[in-house]
Amino acid sequence: MFGHKRAFLYLSIFLFFFHSSSTVISTFLPVYFQEEQLTGTQIGWLMAVGPFSSLLSQPFWGYISDRYKTIKKILLLCLVGVISCSIILFQVNSFLMLLFLCAIFYSFLSPIGAFGDSLALHTSQIVGSSFGRIRMWGSLGYAVTSYLGGQILTRIGLEHLLYPYLAFTIIAFVFCWKVMDINTPSAPINLKGAIRNILRPNFLFFLLIIMFVTIPHRTNDIFSGIYIKELGGNESLIGLSWFVAVAFEAIVYLLSPLWLRFFNEMTYMVIASGLYGVRWLLFSLAETPSQIILLQALHGITFGIFYLCSFQYVSNLFPNEFRATGQLFFISVFFGLSAIIGSLGGGMILDVFNGQMLYKLLSYLAFAGFVGLLGFTAYSGKKLRPVSEILQK
């Protein structure tokens, strides 16, 4: 019992500090590049090359994890990679070198969050908790650092962005040594079997539909800070907006054992996709940064619900021996491919129009995803088990 409590504690601390470090990058890196006098299109390319590299690297790391039956060792290797690359990245001014370094940096960074979620799902089943209540600590780390990071960077300047990022990543690395690894016995796997599982038509069709929801989500991740500055805000308000967003996300995860019992995961994904459309439409009508900050509360019931349910849905589609491969491929589409399209398209729209037009278009995409998921639910035809039945096992 004590060992289970320690496993929960160490993983929770790791998730807190890793997502704290991710906050620094996802929230402030586009604004940092803007301060370095890069154009919206250039920022779009820099934000796209990372997800493009992750699109290739995440399935690779997932396959390696399944093949050697370890997540912890892959996590440690990737953390060493991001620490080394980040030190070099913030010393470079050349746009072409930045493109190259962002590709290397994100090839190590991108699988860490997905592997952390895999550990959270596995650990929750062992310690008798819920996935949401463990994953909540990552959201809390993101929320706290969004607020404090904005306050700190307002005082020390965006040019010192590297230092808080390194501090959080090194702490995450230290606690990663303590987390419980996944080493479940299973049949030997091969690349052919992994590809066959990934290329199943129902899985690919599902990924295609949810991209209408995930592209707007990732576009907002990249450009919300720039939109807040366009409305007259500063780094402090950018941090506050993400604090509000992820604080509500953490609440949604914390309460997940309560609300998950009412519907199955697909029903919740349909509801969340429709609310995404409403969220982006309201963003397009905002006139002040304070309105954006208030609207960020919707992040919890859009991303919080959509990601938790879609991650669980995908995990149940794959046999145990290919689960990490499927999860990492799903993550590469959710956070990778969608970010490529969102960063390139969003940057070009910002150069030609403005943030309000960008968010209006994002709302149209999200509503299209809502309709698509309704159709997918009807087409699949089978009754899905409530998530609560799975999480309580």
The number of domains is 1
Give the rounded overall mean pLDDT: 82
The CATH superfamily bears the name MFS general substrate transporter like domains
Which CATH-level-2 architecture?
Up-down Bundle
Quaternary form = single chain
Helix-strand category: mainly alpha
Largest sheet: none
Poorly predicted spans: 382-393
The strand count comes to: 0
- Distance from first to last alpha carbon: 17 Å
Order of helices and strands: HHHHHHHHHHHHHHHH
Task: Please give the share of residues in helix.
Answer: over 70%
- Briefly note the CATH topology name: Growth Hormone, Chain: A
Number of helices: 16
Kindly provide the name of the CATH class: Mainly Alpha
Spatial extent as radius of gyration: 20 Å
Strand content: under 5%
Subcellular location: Cell inner membrane
InterPro entries: HcaT-like, MFS_assoc_dom, MFS_trans_sf
GO molecular function, one term: lactose:proton symporter activity
Keywords: Cell inner membrane, Cell membrane, Membrane, Transmembrane, Transmembrane helix, Transport
